């Protein structure tokens, strides 16, 4: 009987070449991670060192000033940011999670309209943010008559990050093992009881991570808010959803545009405040994820 065998030289080349390629690939990955980390560390160090002289109570207690950077602050921008991102979360998270539940648990994928919905959600996630600003200006602000207000900015940013929340929530729900659903249904639970008491608690870590990443994008957006009349200089805090507003990215843009060095220092300090807010949001998501991961 003839035995097919690989030549000895080919076996040696394969055994030597495969580990070499894996080693080079691992080096490339580590190098990419190191380069990104170095640039991030350099950026954070520069911002922190540049803004350190103004990281005091004046920054969050005083209102902006166009003349004297020594007494200028960002209280109105910080308050406006909290207003806008809070309402954005209230509008976006329930809607996005409910849409994900429908598409994953109830929708029939053989129906053409469900396929159209899924395709449009994926396409909307890639649209530039300035397009949403134009949409908010033309429809929400003018057609609906909401004007240049907090609620207009929140709805526009909500539409911007809604596809991200839906996609992340769907992936988290899809990752729940089918055996959990089957076991719950076998014990006599209804489909909604299975979703609300088994599927959703198990998918909360992934949903929380995706939602915080979406809100982190929304809190740093400036282009759509420029279209929606976010005021770069405002000396009062918003007192409702229909009030005028400004946000930290707009205030930072305004200070960077000034010629005096004192305003540049203020901009760096405001960037640190924005990063702190982002860090607190991500910390809340990590805490929520770890809490539910221990249960499951």
TrEMBL record:
It is a multi-pass membrane protein. The keyword Disulfide bond does not apply. The keyword Transmembrane helix applies. Residues 78-284 form the ABC transmembrane type-1 domain. GO terms for cellular component: plasma membrane. GO terms for biological process: phosphate ion transmembrane transport. It holds the Pfam family BPD_transp_1. The chain crosses the membrane at residues 24-49, 82-103, 124-141, 147-168, 240-257, 263-288. Keywords: Cell membrane, Membrane, Transmembrane, Transmembrane helix, Transport. It is found in: Cell membrane. InterPro entries: MetI-like, MetI-like_sf, Phosphate_PstA. GO terms for molecular function: phosphate transmembrane transporter activity. Its main location: membrane. Belongs to the binding-protein-dependent transport system permease family. CysTW subfamily. Part of the binding-protein-dependent transport system for phosphate; probably responsible for the translocation of the substrate across the membrane. NCBIfam families: 3a0107s02c (TIGR00974). This is Phosphate transport system permease protein PstA.
């Amino acid at each position: 009987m003839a035995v097919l065998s690989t030549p000895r030289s080919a076996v040696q080349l394969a055994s030597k070449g495969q580990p070499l390629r894996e080693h080079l690939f691992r080096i490339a990955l580590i190098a990419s991670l190191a380069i990104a980390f170095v640039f991030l560390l350099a950026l954070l160090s520069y911002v922190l060192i540049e803004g350190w002289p103004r990281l005091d109570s004046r920054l969050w207690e005083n209102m902006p000033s166009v003349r004297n950077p020594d007494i200028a602050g960002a209280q109105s921008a910080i308050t406006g940011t909290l207003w806008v991102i809070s309402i954005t979360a209230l509008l976006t998270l329930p809607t996005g999670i409910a849409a994900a539940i429908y598409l994953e648990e109830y929708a029939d994928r053989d129906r053409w309209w469900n396929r159209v919905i899924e395709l449009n959600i994926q396409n909307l996630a890639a649209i530039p943010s300035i397009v949403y600003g134009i949409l908010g200006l033309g429809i929400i602000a003018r057609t609906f008559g909401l004007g240049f207000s907090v609620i207009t900015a929140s709805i526009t940013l909500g539409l911007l990050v809604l596809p991200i929340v839906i996609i992340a929530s769907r992936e988290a729900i899809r990752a729940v093992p089918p055996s959990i659903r089957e076991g719950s249904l076998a014990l006599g639970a209804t489909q909604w009881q299975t979703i609300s008491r088994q599927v959703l608690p198990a998918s909360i870590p992934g949903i929380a991570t995706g939602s915080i990443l979406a809100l982190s994008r929304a809190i740093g957006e400036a282009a759509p808010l420029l279209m929606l009349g976010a005021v770069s200089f405002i000396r009062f805090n918003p007192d409702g959803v229909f009030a005028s507003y400004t946000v930290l990215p707009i205030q930072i843009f305004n200070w960077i545009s000034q010629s005096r060095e004192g305003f540049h220092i203020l901009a760096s300090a405001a960037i640190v405040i924005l990063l702190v807010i982002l860090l607190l949001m991500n910390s809340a998501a990590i805490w929520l994820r770890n809490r539910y991961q221990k249960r499951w």
